[in-house]
């Protein structure tokens, strides 16, 4: 059955008359339309740009850079959000009728899908990943069964590379979900995609083929710009239009857009590549060190390590993954060694795991030293 937006989008959203401002039509000249302060911002130091003016509602210049970078067709395939987190929330709000519709997630996965669903009074259906031996892959038959049993599922959130799994999903399995008879929207969250080495990377160019595919990316990770809050949704123009109709009129601030533009310029991209190369080298070193750790207590490094973090099992004397010890190690590192990692042992298939973000060479060395000390203390 062909994908139909009318079946997925909430009726009140389809009927929405979007907020319009004069800037949608005119953005140059003497601007006396938006009750801004004509004298300028009250800042002690100069910041580039007219900060007394509301920002461009759509940031086409930034989008043009993303179109080039991700080899898309047009800016109409792009939506910019206040981080991917805003995109997640908006997708749930435009698709799911509170108290009625549902989303599907594939644990272990990023926590915000459930949090946003809960905030919007939307039920979460879980189809766990196959976690055997740290595979962290979709069970497409189970997803199909869940969708069949819950026709209210309007959104499926897939994460590749996954958080906290650090593992890319097999592209054939994503394609299988897209080509099933599921009639809702499939979201592929690619927050960490730039760290993928090899050919299991982005599915962004699939949006031309699948009208129900949304690919999310962000400048928070590979671009190192978590502070500006810029998330990206790529999808077919009809769906993007609905996101634009629904967002707050000026969601992305001028300084964020300027910094994004700079980061996406040729020089910015060269810098991103340079940092990424350094980070990937550090990832390899950290991985090898942890795999042959000089002090007992480190088990397997699970998953395929495709993102900028590693999932490290902490094991007990018997060599079994151990949440009690992992939690102790986590707390001791933070409270007595000033090294903060993330305890993920309670996530499905992640018993005993610490999620360790790859830092600079010096940060990683400190982590390695302090982890040895703490493992000795918890032996
Ligand atoms: C998988 C995944 N998606 C989305 C996000 C949120 O990204 P943003 O900073 O763009 O809101 C994160 C942040 O950690 C993440 O891990």
What order do the helices and strands come in, and which of them pair?
Blueprint: H1 5-8, H2 11-14, H3 60-70, E1 78-81, H4 83-95, E2 102-105, H5 112-119, E3 123-126, H6 140-149, E4 153-159, H7 171-178, E5 185-189, E6 213-218, E7 231-234, H8 237-246, H9 254-263, H10 266-291, E8 298-302, E9 309-314, H11 323-337, E10 342-343, E11 353-357, H12 361-377
Parallel strand pairs: 2-3, 2-4, 4-5, 5-6
Antiparallel strand pairs: 1-7, 6-7, 8-9, 9-11, 10-11
Family: Belongs to the class-II pyridoxal-phosphate-dependent aminotransferase family.
Domain Aminotransferase class I/classII large: 32-371
EC number: 2.6.1.9
Per CATH, the superfamily of the largest domain is Type I PLP-dependent aspartate aminotransferase-like (Major domain)
In the predicted model, the low-confidence regions spanning at least 5 consecutive residues are none
Looking at CATH, which topology of the largest domain would you report? Answer: Aspartate Aminotransferase, domain 2
Shape: globular
Instruction: Tell how many strands the DSSP assignment holds.
Output: 11
Which ligands does the model contain, each kind named once?
pyridoxal-5'-phosphate
**% residues in beta strands:** 5-15%
- The run of helices and strands is HHHEHEHEHEHEEEHHHEEHEEH
CA-based gyration radius: 22 Å
Largest sheet: 7 strands, mixed
**What structural class do the secondary elements suggest?**
alpha/beta
Q: Helix proportion of residues, in percent?
A: 25-40%
Number of distinct helices: 12
CATH class bucket of the largest domain: Alpha Beta
How many domains? The number is: 2
Distance, first to last CA? 58 Å
Strand order of the largest sheet: 1-7-6-5-4-2-3
Named CATH architecture of the largest domain: 3-Layer(aba) Sandwich
Mean pLDDT: 94
